[in-house]
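dumping this here before i forget
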Amino acid sequence: MKRVRLVVIGLMVLAFLVGCASKPTKEIEDTTAAVKAVIAEGLDKYAPEDSKKLNDALAAINEELKVQDGKTFKSFDKTKQMLADLSKMAADMKAALPAKKEAAKQAAVAAMEAAKAAAEEAKNLLAKAPKGKGTAADIEASREM
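structure:
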């Protein structure tokens, strides 16, 4: 009977030690830093949908941590996998960010050229506009635009 008690107590202690897995604090800090670094480089501005994906994944990890904190027997395996996936996603987005910045720059240059062309066309049309019904000051003001 004494042996059975010792075995049961030993199993309970072992289960308690196994159940008290430690939170992957270093991985959480590293992943959070990687996400913040990518966002700080302009991910919000150049790829807001990617930024939302990162923030949603980070929120999911925090939810998983809350779930595990509420359990008696904690297991952070899923959390560690989620952190690894998020780190990879952040690294991939960081690598793709220069291309997105360049694409945004090219789009801005093209929009500027289109605006210049539209302004020039408007000036040409204004020069061809009939001169009448209006004061000379009104016509001159519209030419200066």
